[in-house]
């Protein structure tokens, strides 16, 4: 996994990870030899055992919910069962495989379709659910 988000993004003061640990499960993290959709061996279920020594990628990552004030509480990854980030023009949605249809439900489906239709600067939306990949139209 390379860049996960716009690293210049600033977290919103009122938003914290809380009990969410989806970033410890959903993405692959080469530096930790962690495949996608597998729990990181350092995840305690409430945090990270190696937090002070975690890889730079983990230090730099902020999901879109933490940085985009337009995403309301429904988009909190712990509630939505999705982790969203930007990679240039690509909006990437990683869906918790325990909730594979989460991205198809309201309010998420309509917003994802809206982002795909906007296509600002060539923007597009890709959804990963386990091994399945979908492009939102």
UniProtKB/TrEMBL annotation:
Organism's domain of life? Bacteria
| Entry-linked InterPro entries | UPF0153_domain
State the protein's name: Zinc/iron-chelating domain-containing protein
**Species of the source:** Ensifer adhaerens
């Amino acid at each position: 996994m390379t860049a996960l988000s716009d690293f210049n993004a600033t977290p919103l003061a009122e938003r914290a990870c809380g009990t969410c640990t989806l970033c410890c499960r959903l993405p692959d993290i080469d530096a930790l030899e962690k495949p996608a959709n597998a729990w990181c061996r350092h995840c305690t279920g409430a945090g990270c055992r190696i937090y002070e020594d975690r890889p730079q990628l983990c230090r730099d990552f902020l999901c879109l919910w933490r940085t985009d004030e337009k995403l309301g509480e429904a988009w909190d990854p712990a509630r939505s069962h999705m982790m969203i980030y930007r990679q240039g023009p690509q909006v990437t949605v990683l869906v918790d495989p325990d909730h594979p249809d989460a991205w198809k439900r309201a309010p998420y489906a309509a917003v994802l379709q809206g982002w795909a239709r906007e296509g600002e600067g060539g923007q597009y939306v890709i959804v990963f659910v386990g091994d399945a990949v979908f492009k939102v139209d």
